[in-house]
Amino acid sequence: MSIRVLVNGALGKMGLEVIKAVCNDTQTEIAGAVDIKATDKLLLCPDQSGSVQLFVDLETAMGKTKPHVMVDFSQADGCMAATRMAAQQKVNLVIGTTGLASHDLVEIDQLAKENGIGVVVAPNFALGAVLMIHLARIAAKYFDYVEIIEKHHEQKLDAPSGTAMSTARAMREAREGLFKHPQVHKEILSGTRGGEMEGVAVHSVRMPGLLAHQEVIFGTSGQTLTIKHDSINRECFMPGVIMAIKKVSEHKGLVYGLDKLLGI
Ligand SMILES: NC(=O)c1ccc[n+]([C@@H]2O[C@H](COP(=O)([O-])OP(=O)(O)OC[C@H]3O[C@@H](n4cnc5c(N)ncnc54)[C@H](O)[C@@H]3O)[C@@H](O)[C@H]2O)c1
Q: I need a surface site. Which of 54, 150, 186, 213 has the fewest CB within 10 A?
């Protein structure tokens, strides 16, 4: 039996890519699509393989399409409202939307456990990005200085990126003491030393021509080590999203990060 998938945020850049990936996989089928911007009742599949029912209201969509899994690539507030509704309906969730606060993650875990569903939340579904965080976690033990430069397209709503925050958190957990974050004697232009998280300076670049890129630069006496990842198109996220769709029902509660599904 194929897994029936409802996509929330379906008319967005990621939503459309997810619909295409779900249509292309033999073990998944697209049950429906939801977007607050929807005006039509049908959405042509991006690969022209057929059309999918399109809804503006999630509750109606849930009732009519009876999905096994809902995938959310919308916007943080909308995502939390959708999560509450999906949990009530006992629908498993795969969440890629970023900008969720730590209290949102606590609520998601509670909702998932109370309703006996699995929820995968991954700030980055690209395998290379997950490995970048894994490698940064290893290097964190050996360097006292580290800074992150993350670069994204100019339409990204949040800063810093969820990936940058996950990287900072993972590196901090991997070592005993805080990283050293040297303050300059005189900051002539405010913010030029970046935002600080877990002792790590994070710098966010936003401009057209970029998709999603990150460099983690470690420093110690006489040497630096740079771990760098570039997403050059949105297809790079899809193997991770499809894997999460297939595995989410094996879990009860929140699974945070694709690394947990990959076993690293
Ligand atoms: N986890 C990852 O690997 C990953 C990768 C890329 C983007 N993202 C995140 O995914 C999210 C979407 O990114 P995008 O580039 O597709 O953005 P986008 O602006 O192109 O698409 C968002 C879509 O969601 C819709 N939407 C907004 N609020 C909604 C609501 N309450 N209910 C239903 N639909 C709603 C919008 O109308 C829009 O069509 C962002 O948070 C982004 O940071 C995550």
A: 186
